[in-house]
């Protein structure tokens, strides 16, 4: 009788436990379940004892105490096996599988669920079978095996429908929706969650209805539809409150917090996450508590309060470790890595992301592994290690594509595009970002589209296409406004401001920066607010409104100090120091710049450190000139010395950045442009102090650095020990020793043309010549008080362009035959800043013209029409007087090698004329061009066995046909005289020419790899010198070739691996390219880097028939055994005696590199 009463008491305790568990009152539930357990043990009822252990496990599971839950479930299983209770054994395996799932032991979870499935099938328990398929699906999803997950959930759904189990059907729909949401298949996800919602409403399952609204909210959130997401989450919350379900209520607060976070409403997000946290603590839900800490950390991170974020993420990590939840431990480590990343502590960030990676690998979480790779890629990207970043992003891409995660795939493409942009591979960046945009559009991910357009804007801005950049940023802005993404809206305004600033439209830049600032202030986004203040300061500085600029910089400082952003703090001191230097307050400038330097050294920011050193050096340089004007020789010399010291230190920083780039050639080219000022200033200091040899070595260090590295490595040459490929003066002496040429090294040193004359057995001669009418005080030179047009480089550029106009290089030339495009009118589109270091300079014949299409409409074959101009001074003679006349008596050798700089690469030296004798320079001596002394050394000292001694590849008039060119279908006519040129040269050399349809890109690339002594192209040439060949694919109307099918690009030429003695580019513009500190970045440089010893190229669009005549004369002399420079000179002399005697027909051709002799 007593036993019967005790059993009844146990049943009552068990039922009360169930009630309190459903209400989320876990302490009370534990109390009653423990009473039930004690009674079952007392009455020795093993079946009920097993159930009691299972119930206690359920409570501890709900509390997030998974290890405790696991112990009770294992006791539950043990007794069920002992008593042969298959039903309870199946349930026990299900419970253990679920706890292993949350402990991130997914394979253990799968093992348990499979055992439960076997029991369910054996026992014919369709209900348990369906639920087990659902659990298996969740485990497979966690393992990244989403297709297996979908199959399991579909089996669960089918069983539920068969049994008429509406609740089970709704649960299966929820799980399917979740999988599709994770894969970025949002429409499929919505359909299943809507089915889930309809079922819950039909069976009046308020709990299920709340879950369905939450699921729909999550899908809309994934798509960037945040307002819609909030609407659903609020419906879910209302139901949770109505049914008094604290567990769902807490999750609703968390979901609402995340949605408001994504809207940029961080304080609202924090309020909701704190409510979620309080509920989790009251319920003793450790899992929910940990998630709330993580979400709070993310909100404070977005507010720029990184240290507060770290505190919350640390709490999240502690809770995850306590509960043994490896997945949450990984999430906490990821968030900590992101916080340290924002603080610029990249090594610490890497350590946390590597910990996440290791945890994800341990639990075989493929999506977690992929995300860790992506995060590591982002850190390496920010720390400037872009190749390493690409390596990680490619690993990330591989995994997300394998598991079918479209959202992750889009993100991976976006990250790869960002890395390619940083490497200067802008076309590749655009391709990746277009893939990101297309996937985001396909899966209707508005937020992803917004990011993609922002990134595409960055790509187009990087290549100076401000119009396209603006379009992309405006699309980005409109999407952000449509989805209510205030932070994204602010970023778009900031990007638009940068476009307008780069275009010299300062008022519009300020207008957009102010909108960006307004958004950041509304959102309490301190980091964004600080950035906006910096941008506004820069804009007002550009407008020379320095007081206003300083006001904004001060506001930036306040925020930087408040949020502990040392990088921004250093940026403030650098910007203010630069302003003070600009307005002539040099001592104040030095004080602020030294503070910038100190911070940069503390945080290991080499780039900013280099900037600070060079700016301090410039301050001392300008101070020295002030003292010189005051006749204070002592302070003048002291300041010059200080300037030299700081400039040297700046170069140590920059050289370290350069060396760290390894074989990243494009990055090397770009980075030298960022610190060319240091080289130029130090050169100027050495000139000022009469140290001409040091000045020459310094100007050399800023030239063709990347090309020099390539050639020295290719030909396995060395300089003095530990030189890092930097010449000593003894190396320069060896270059000219016993040579029959003189070298002219030109440098445009801001106020005058600096020239060094080098010749065998002659002392170094330095000449610093000023240009008539050009005078600029040193302290005005580096201020914003002058227009760019007053700079020396602009002055020379205009003379060079007048020279092209004087020769009428576009008038009368049948440019349509070998040039793809009309010459551009440079000045019609010129913007302020075009003549700064690293920008493209105008090319041949691009200035002072007004082009129309009238003559084209009338059928004229002239490509460029402009009015005749009369010149007071013949510009070809003016250039001779500037660059040759002062040195003429010192050019005693038979040949001259010219090492130009900037706009001098566009000077037709062959056509410069002595006004006294009427002779052209090319009549006086052969002329050769070299990018630098280092490249000249590498080419002339390369082993004779390195280059081929026989064979020739002659290409002429490829049959291009109808092709896609820059997004439009275009047809290119065959080149009659180019074909004749190729055939006659090939006959002269005893080889067969490749012409017409034979000259395909695929065939040519193969032939280039085979190796010949001479390579000759007589083809169409693009405006940047790239070579147009016959397409490698069919030209049928249904398959119009794209650019990749027929254009031989610079990168392809450079990667061709040729070892030719001579490459002749008988195409329009083949000597053109972007002019940077590296030299001309074009096709001629690409072939030198590939392995050519010398290249002949053209400076402008060439006449087809005249070029054929010139090339035949050139090869005739070459065949006689004359060296390349003498052959070029003789061909010019021969042309002057015939029909095509004007300079425009013979002067565009230049020889770059070594003076080779070819025997074919």
TrEMBL record:
Annotated PROSITE patterns: TPR, TPR_REGION
Gene3D superfamilies the record matches: Tetratricopeptide repeat domain
Membrane-spanning ranges: none
Signal sequence, renumbered to the chain: none
One Pfam entry name: CHAT
Sequence ranges of Basic and acidic residues compositional bias: 848-860
PANTHER family in the record: RAPSYN-RELATED, TETRATRICOPEPTIDE REPEAT PROTEIN 28
Protein name per the record: Tetratricopeptide repeat protein 28-like
Organism annotation: Actinia tenebrosa
